[in-house]
Amino acid sequence: MATATHHRSRGSEAAAGGLVTFAAVLLFVAGILDLFRGIMAIADDDVYVSTPNYIFKFDLTSWGWIQLVLGVVAMGVSAGLFSRALWARVVGVAIAALLIVANFLSIPYYPVWSLVLIALYAFVIWALCVVRE
């Protein structure tokens, strides 16, 4: 009776590498978008919609610094993803999850942008979790 060994085909290895690269590019682009969004909030709060009765109310300048820092971290993690580092996949899922929460909390201030970034970060999480390297 032969033992079952799992060998990866070249096609499946290429697909796995492609998904990690896809996640790295998406995380980098979404990180840049969050970086710019943070700069917008720090520089000029008039860009954002004012919502007086929102339960999760934040000072927009502080919120801008949070977005800016998370965007920079996301861009840094994407560099690790390009090198196929396991730590980068783990941190990439964590930072994408944090950014989903951050964008959820900022939906009343910038609704369409927040929803687009939530979708991008969800794709990042999916791409990093589906690959088994």
Automatic annotation (TrEMBL):
Q: Which UniProt keywords apply?
A: Membrane, Transmembrane, Transmembrane helix
Residue span, DUF7144 domain: 20-132
Family matches, as Pfam families: DUF7144
Q: Which residues cross the membrane?
A: 20-43, 63-82, 87-106, 112-131
Q: Which domain of life is it from?
A: Bacteria
Asked if Signal is a keyword of the record, the answer is no
Record flagged with keyword Metal-binding: no
InterPro entries, per the entry = DUF7144 (IPR055568)
What name goes with this protein? DUF7144 domain-containing protein
Q: Source species, please?
A: Streptomyces indiaensis
